[in-house]
Amino acid sequence: MKILTRSRIMLLTALTALFTSRSLSYGQQTRGVDWIHGLGGDVNSLRRVDSLYNALRRVVTPIRQGYNTSNGITNMATAVQGSTGGANRLGIGHSLGGTAARQVSFWNNSHWRGIVTMGSPLRGAKISASASDGTNTAFINNGIDRMMAGPGVGAGTAPPIFPNLGILIHQVSILGQLFSGTLASKANSTLMNSFGLVGQTAVDLHPNSNYQSGAQFQGATVPKILIWGNEVYPLLWRTVGTYSSDNGTDDQGVSIASTAADIYNTIANGEEALSWANLPMHGFHQWRKGKWEEGKNWVNNDSNAGWEEVIGSNYTELVSWYETVVTCDANQWQACYASSPPPGYCDDYCTDQVYHSYTVYHDYPSDGVVTQRSATNDGGSWQGIHLEAPNTNHGEFKRPDRVRPTLDWVFNNGDQSGHFQIDLR
Question: Residue ranges of the domains in the chain?
């Protein structure tokens, strides 16, 4: 009898656990996801992020398609609309993919349950204008000139200098064989070739284009999370490292820049030593030192400032004021008042208003390609939750290890709305 009772208890316990497990399972939040790649991307661009969350989360029928990204935002959005959507699905777009998703929501507010954009140029991309207005070309040429300034004058302690190429920085690197004279152009082409800024899309992405003007004040009530990347210094080299290959990392770009700067600094220090060892030639060696420091300073500082100009993440502010300066001494003041002048005359006679001004240089946060202002649609009507992705550049939104903390917040119902929640498996 005691054995039977124990058996019944064990059976009831097992059944309770089974039904409890099933009820919890049925209560878990599932959701479909449409992954939409960015400019110059293809069906594989977000493959690793898709695979990660398909394994970790209760994602239902994830969809990744390849879209033509050169025929304009509207044409891309038309293709996206035709192959995605659903009442319980999320549209998650990287870069231009998020911009296309926004356009779909203009046409059909209920196409998705919610939209997540990652580094999307919602107010255009200055890099598109820079590619055609000479800003990008000036950036490259400045880099070439600065990096060739040292090799152009030679050095007493320099490695071999190759005509029109400068010195060899890397025999084998993420940018291939790398000479100082080709550093700027190779870094630039690595990024520009990855983005594919061509055709009508390049026109649409111009911040002052007809498309941007028309989209600025259009809205949609679909829930939205607008993610913006906040990459850290050195902005250019971290972004170059990430885009150098499918498995490139931002640290690889920093390594190239550090190597180049260190070589130039070593040569500059050598010229400094020679200037004191050979005093009759002191001025000459100091002059050559300055030329090598031009290259070092370009790599360490000016390359990043130049790239910020290309992507539009810097701006200037003029601060000005007038200072009242007294021009009379005590005797002159006394003489003025003794003449019984009209009220205020002596104040005007004995003072001057001197104008002062200075320029303040500011940086907008950015992911190395798209600024925070554009990624959050600053000044635009299409709005949602703004979410920072710290230390993340534009290419790293495609890297599971870098984007996971940000997307985990989204899927963990970080905004408390329930619209974006997808539970763990």
Answer: 32-312+376-425, 316-363
